[in-house]
Design goal:
It comes from Microbacterium fluvii. The protein is an all-alpha fold and about 80 residues long. Helices cover about 80% and strands about 0% of the residues.
């Protein structure tokens, strides 16, 4: 059941979360509760980050980290060469 919960699309997650909010799902069952929790997380994540694929977000993250690292090296190297 967890494999299904990991592959929720934003539309599916929204429908599951809405069903849970309306009280149509039996959340006493641990498996259903896991799926509902995953759906709610997916809805929140989609509302914050959009429904862009994770790989694209990771690419943007790594590019930002690389840019910051290059900037720090660009500041540090002249100081080290001057005072080192």
């Amino acid at each position: 059941m967890s494999a299904v919960a990991d592959d929720l699309t934003p539309d599916e997650a929204e429908r599951i979360a809405q069903q849970a909010r309306d009280g149509r799902l039996e959340t006493d069952d641990p498996q259903i509760r896991k799926v509902v929790t995953r759906a709610q997380r997916t809805v929140v994540r989609t509302s914050l980050w959009g429904d862009a694929p994770r790989s694209r977000r990771m690419l943007v993250l790594w590019l930002a980290i690389g840019f910051i690292a290059l900037w720090v090296v660009g500041l540090a190297v002249p100081l080290i060469l001057t005072f080192g």
